[in-house]
TrEMBL record:
Keywords linked to the UniProt accession: Signal
Signal peptide positions (record): 1-21
Alphabetized Pfam families for the sequence: DUF3280
Name assigned to this protein: DUF2380 domain-containing protein
Gene3D superfamilies: ABC-type transport auxiliary lipoprotein component
Length: 205
């Protein structure tokens, strides 16, 4: 195990008890959010990709396997209810044929979320610069407002199945969800403050 992998593993192990506690507290009294996860994109700017005129088959296969792992991980959480993307498969195909990447499709992800009757929609992509420089990314959008409500990015330092899996799980179980829940808490605090101020103004009258 190299130094970076060891550090990531140590961080994940140390964070596990706290993550478990947080997952039990976050949204405990709230119904699960209906989450649509769109197909992940492969953004390959590597020399290999240029010579191959697109991502390598092995990388595309890793992308699909990793996306499936992330779906299962998010599906196991109490705060989400996954929406079956097959229910709008034709609309997803149309969007994929109209835009190069679904993670930047001029708001089409929101339209797809509405079509699937989802509360949240997630886009994801892996960017490959070389076999030693890759990153996996995800963004959560509120379907009603169209705003980004969570995001995360994790670097990978090797192009292997093990690295993709570990980085992908760290993305959704830590980086993405911690950012999402942090934003939720900030929004709830702001709403509470606004309500309190409104009440004080009413009492003053």
């Amino acid at each position: 195990m190299n130094g970076v992998a060891a550090v990531l593993l140590l961080v994940a192990v140390m964070a596990a008890p706290f993550a478990s506690a947080a997952s039990g507290d976050e949204g405990a009294d709230q119904p699960p959010e209906r989450l649509l996860i769109l197909p992940f994109d492969m953004v390959d700017s590597s020399l290999q990709g240029e010579m191959n005129h697109g991502p390598l088959d092995a990388d595309v296969a890793r992308l699909r396997r990793t996306a499936d792992i992330l779906r299962r991980s998010l599906g196991d959480r109490d705060e989400f209810e996954l929406v079956d993307p097959d229910s709008i498969s034709e609309k997803i195909k149309e969007a994929a044929s109209s835009y190069r990447y679904l993670y930047e499709c001029n708001g089409c992800q929101i339209d797809l979320g509405k079509a699937a009757d989802a509360d949240l929609v997630m886009t994801g992509w892996v960017q490959k610069v070389s076999n030693l420089i890759l990153n996996i990314n995800a963004t959560l959008y509120d379907v009603e407002t169209g705003e980004s409500v969570g995001g995360g990015s994790v670097d990978m330092r090797s192009n292997t199945d093990k690295s993709w899996r570990a980085s992908g799980l760290y993305l959704v179980e830590h980086a993405l969800l911690e950012n999402y829940h942090s934003r939720q808490r900030a929004r709830a605090a702001a709403e509470t403050t606004a309500t309190s101020q409104t009440g004080e103004q009413t009492d003053a009258r």
